[in-house]
Design brief:
With 135 residues, the protein is mostly helical. It has a domain at 29-112. The chain has helices spanning 7-12, 36-39, 42-58, 66-81, 88-100, 105-111, 124-127. Helix 3 packs across helix 4 and helix 4 packs antiparallel against helix 5 (88-100). The N and C termini lie far apart (45 Å).
């Protein structure tokens, strides 16, 4: 099954399926707090401090996703220690957590969809910019 398209992309395409487009409500649950189990490993703390600011700016690291990001940090520590002995199941967990947090380019867009301007056509952003002149 394909992943759902971001709401902005569906609006820009004209919503060909004519299904309702859910409005994403941004609930402020507060800042993400590093879980205690991450504090036990120095490298996990370093990974948290390295990636957390960018994920908070993206809007994917919040209080409710801090535990998931903490698990990602711990798995990455384990991977960095010995990548050749990492089981495929744990690599799959890393990939899933990375995708859930918007850490890969293919999913980052689903988290950074701009709020549409009521006076602007949603497709306008895809068709603006330099145009080739034919003739």
């Amino acid at each position: 099954m394909n992943k759902p398209k971001p709401a902005a992309v569906r609006r820009a395409m004209g919503n060909p399926g004519k299904r309702p487009i859910p409005e994403v409500r941004d609930v402020d649950t507060g800042p993400a707090v590093m879980p205690a189990y991450v504090n036990r490993r120095k490298r996990a703390v370093a990974l948290w401090n390295e990636y957390a600011p960018a994920l908070e700016l993206l809007g994917t690291l919040k209080a409710e996703s801090a535990g998931m990001f903490g698990v990602w940090c711990m798995l990455m520590v384990e991977f960095e220690r010995n990548p050749n002995r990492m089981p495929a199941s744990k690599i799959a967990q890393i990939r899933f957590l990375s995708s859930s947090l918007g850490m890969d380019p293919s999913t980052r867009g689903k988290f950074s969809t701009p709020k549409p301007n009521a006076n602007q056509d949603p497709a306008e952003e895809f068709f603006t910019g330099p145009r080739a002149v034919i003739g």
